[in-house]
Specification:
alpha+beta; 434 Repressor (Amino-terminal Domain); Cyanate Lyase, Chain: A, domain 2; two-stranded antiparallel ribbon; 6 helices
Length: 152
Amino acid sequence: MRQKRRDRARERLLAAKRDADVTYQNIAETVGQNEVWVAAVIFGEASADEAQARAIVEALDSQAPVETIDDLQLAPRKGDDQPTIPSDPMLYRLYEIPHVYGDAIKEIVHEEFGDGIMSAIDFSCHVDRVTDAEGDRVKITYEGKFLPYKRW
């Protein structure tokens, strides 16, 4: 039931976003949050507090019902909608990167920080366009708190 509510909210808000012809960055500026986080809330992968949910709906000039604001506050089931590697080319490439470079990145993190992990809770992500004469490039930056493993 909860997931169906989140799905309906996502459909309403994506339609409102198309109708309003706004970007995630436009919404993020209104809400005062990062554009990746705003998109994650709309897609049901993150939750907003009441003020943030209202700001998202208002940024879309949406006539969304009041329950949409409530739906955006529901605790998400992160990653639950894609139990396997997706076939969408963009999403597939995002999965491919850790398969190809994951061991190397992990080794460098351990070399720099020691034995531990990067938090996906205390985390931010930014997507930027990098202008290049041979074709624009996508720059994705992950930034997460380093969490050392406890020795016990």
